[in-house]
Amino acid sequence: MAAQTSLPTLIRKKRDGERLEEEEIQSFVRGVTDGTAQQGQIGAMLMAIRLRGMEAGETLALTRAMAGSGRALEWPPAWRGRLVDKHSTGGVGDKVSLALAPALAACRCKVPMISGRGLGHTGGTLDKLEAIPGFRVTQSPEEMQRILEGVGCCIVGQSEELAPADRVLYSLRDVTATVDSLPLITASILSKKAAEQLSALVLDVKFGSAALFPTLESARELAHSLVGVGEQLGIRTAAVLSRMDQPLGRCVGNSLEVLEALECLHGGGPPDLRELVTTLGGLLLWQCGLAEDAERGREQLGGALDDGSALRTFEAMLVAQGVSPPTAHRLCTGTPPQRRQVLGEARVREELPAPGGGWVQAVEALPLARVLHKLGAGRTRAGDPLNPRVGAELLVGVGDHLQEGQPWLRLHHEGGLGAGGRQALQAALRLGPAPPPAAPPRLAQTILPPPGTTGDRQ
Ligand code: IUR
Predict the structure, then answer these.
(1) What is the pLDDT of residue 33?
(2) Protein residue closest via CA to atom 5 of ligand 1
(3) Who wins on pLDDT, 393 or 417?
(4) Residue 16 sits in a domain of what CATH number?
(5) Does residue 204 share a domain with residue 309?
(6) What is the pLDDT of residues 3-58, one digit of tens each?
(7) Measured from the CB, is residue 189 less than 6 Å from ligand 1?
């Protein structure tokens, strides 16, 4: 019987390129969850999957088994069809969730958003929110339900009980060079979303020099895998392929990104941020049947940013998650200096002069993020502390003209930016003798499931 097949036999089977049966995958995940599988065995299986790949049916079975390894969230039946979430594969300056979750809630969705922390050069939504004094990312499922009843959205960390097999596999992938595996990424992301019992999900799959996947083609392959498996799980799933060579918006660093998300929640902020927020939200409103199509959904979402309802929802979410009402109110409705005062500022603010004159061709996200990381904005290992006040504001955009010596970047730090850091930052600014050609759009493509494929269309 497959269920009794020993782990070495399963590993050998995958190693030799054979297809694993559903029960065999379940048996592997059971071993991962109950601790009977040895770390070496898990690592070997991960590498076999990384090298041999998985068919769509195997990936679906792995996702289901991982989702079933822990508790599933439960929601009142009246919310069916309106439970939504967004997942991003990680970028620089990505503060989309902070504006998107409350804007969706203001449009009558229920948003139990489960987010992550930053690692390496990419930022994490939980770290951004923790820049706000008092904000608590740890909430029990019961607390989440209470917040969704009163406010409509919450943004929380992954609890121990949700898809525990993913926690084990993800930490081992990091140390076994098996992170970049399509079936493993798909199962990891979607197992948590399946346990969230969502109606609809939108994925922001990033590509480019500062993304997990460098090319559009590789990101598209992941998006198709995610959309296909998501639909098989009964979640209406769509993906947007978005470029990640340059930071999203003008600010990078946790406190600065909160401030920029607030600008978006006030109906302003950088156009690329608003475009991504409204596109992702518009797709979700359409998938839920709350908008006739994605374009109307986008307008509706934009309306919630413009009329103050998304901002009021954000303020209510902050209070529900531990921020004192006066602090939340001051942050959301105060003047820009009052908002900055709530979050506090780094000791040093330093403007970098352009090393020469010319037209801005690009500002590269990866070197910028790496320098900020060294200055304390990011973490190298899970659990490392970080300084939310460290960050950078771009003072120019692509297509602007700069004179030599004109400031192009304002850095916020606590000291310690040496000559090497300054040099690395200057290299992030690419200048040319003529205006750049029209930039390719940040949003390259939307991937939708073929019509009529979702199992559960309530
Ligand atoms: N985020 C996840 O939740 N899982 C993954 O495998 C990756 C990002 I890569």
Answers:
(1) 97
(2) 185
(3) 393
(4) 1.20.970.10
(5) yes
(6) 468 999 999 999 999 999 999 999 999 999 999 999 999 999 999 999 999 999 99
(7) yes
pLDDT value, residue 453: 65
pLDDT bracket for residue 457 (50, 70, 90): very low
| Ligand 1 atom having least distance to the Cα of 170 | 6
Q: Are residues 231 and 205 in the same domain?
A: yes
Q: What is the pLDDT of residues 98-153, one digit of tens each?
A: 999 999 999 999 999 999 887 777 779 999 999 999 999 999 999 999 999 999 99
Between β-strands 153-157 and 111-115, what pairing exists: parallel, antiparallel or unpaired?
parallel
Q: Which of 13, 128, 192, 389 is catalytic?
A: 192
CATH code for the domain of 428: 3.90.1170.30
Assign residue 87 the CATH number of its domain: 3.40.1030.10
Edge-first strand order for the sheet with 401-402 is 401-402, 358-363, 429-432
Q: Is the full-model pTM beyond 0.85?
A: yes
- Look up the domain containing 6 and give its range: 2-53
Are 273 and 248 contacting, i.e. CB atoms less than 8 angstroms apart? yes
Q: Per the residue annotation, which of 121, 128, 173, 243 is the catalytic one? A: 173
What's the gap in Å between 3 CA and the centre of ligand 1? 28
> Has 128 been annotated as catalytic?
no
Choose, from 125, 181, 242, 255, the residue flagged as catalytic.
125
Which ligand 1 atom is at minimum distance from the Cα of 185?
A: 6
Pair (18, 149) in one structural domain:
no
Give the mutation target among 188, 203, 222, 229 for probing the ligand 1 site: most ligand atoms within 8 A of CB: 188
User: Is position 280 within any domain?
Assistant: yes
Look at residue 357 and tell me if it is in a domain: yes
Residue nearest to atom 6 of ligand 1 (CA): 185
